[in-house]
Amino acid sequence: MLYSILAHIVKQLGMAPGGEFRTAFKEAKKVPNCIIQLADRSIDVTIQRALREVSWWEIIKLTWFVLRLDSRISKQDIERYKRKCVLEQMISTLREEYPAIEKTFVTERDIYLTYHLQMATATQYTSAGLISPRVVGVVGIGHINGIVENWGKVKASDIWPIIRVPPQSLSTKILKFTIKASLLGATIYVGYKVIPLPSTNVLQSIKSSIEGLLKGSAK
């Protein structure tokens, strides 16, 4: 679904999101002794945490939203979204409609980004004395308010809870197993109706696949 949204933006604007980060990276490489640090949370962790937090109702609503994503986005719209009042309204709407997504994609990353910016700007003890590093942080506009609000408050102990991936719920495991079993069953049924009866080796391979599916779903 995320790829669908990004593809829609690219198609409408003729450019990929994240251009500010690519520009910042190119410019930083021109500065002597400049240390480039990627301070955002891993996208894999963010997505996994979102999948654990999001409700089935939110998934249904978001899927419906993506399927109906045909509105036009202009460069003027992007400039309008940069306004503080408009941005705050969008985040507020996201919080109301998709609370789990807002929590994992915005609030938690605000905390994560704030912590790493705090670490980067901390006074360093060197042989020449105390040095205050010069730091330029390039973040998405939707994170600015959260970083300002959290600045100086985030501790190392606040990070572990937002980088761990909670275990799957029993209902999620059952649903995943049901989907896998249904797909496998449909494949076997179609193969049985269309393809001649397989050899003993092929049957043994199918048996092993089913046993592997049952073991994987039991974890």
UniProtKB/TrEMBL annotation:
Matching InterPro entries = TraB/PrgY/GumN_fam, TraB_PrgY-like
Pfam families in alphabetical order: TraB_PrgY_gumN
Q: What is this protein called?
A: TraB domain-containing protein
- Give the source species: Apis cerana (Indian honeybee)
